[in-house]
Amino acid sequence: MSLAAHYAAALSRPTRADAARGGVSGDDVPWHEERTPAAVLVAITDRSTPGLILTQRPDHMRKHAGQIAFPGGRVDPEDADVVAAALREAHEEIALDPALVQVFGTSDVYHTGTGYHITPVLATIPADLPLRPNEGEVADVFEVPLDFVLDPANQQHKSGEWQGIIRHYYEIQWQDRRIWGATAGMLVNLARRIA
Asked: How many Å apart are CA 102 and CA 82, to the nearest integer?
C-alpha cells in the first residue's frame, strides 16, 4: 500500500468525537461573524521514514513573525477550491511544483481565534525536492519527521494569556524549532484522525 493510500484509508474512517467537534481549535476560540476560508498544504515526503514540510515565517512580518507554519493562506476568489488554494500558496511560498503533488484528502477544518477556517490539504510529494523559500513570505523551509510531530508524547498542552484571556494551545518542540498554535493544533487533530 502506498503512503498516500495508507493515510487516505485512515482519513476515511469515522471521526472520533474530539476531532468531529473541531479537535483542538476548541471552545475558547471566540466566534467571528466573518469567517475567512484558508487552506494549508500538509506535504508528506514519500520516503521510508516520511517527513513533513514546514516553513518558518520571516522575523520582519507584521503578523506571525518567526512562526512555524504549513505552506498556505487564504482562499482567493480565483481558486477553484481549497485544494487549488493550498497548491497555489505552496507554489508561491516554496516553489513546490503542483504537478509533483499527490493530494489524497483533507482533514478537519481548524478554526482560529482570528476568524480563519483553515482546511488542511493532505498530500505526498517526492523526497528531496529543491524547494526554495519566497523571501518575502518565508525565511526557511525544512522537513521534520512525520512520526515525531504526530506522536502525542511530543505534543505539549500549554496555556497563556492573549488579549486578557487565558488561551490553550499545543506546542511541539523539534530540535531548535517551536511548532505551536494553529500549526501544532492541526497536527494534533491529524494525529487523532489517523491513530
From this structure: 15
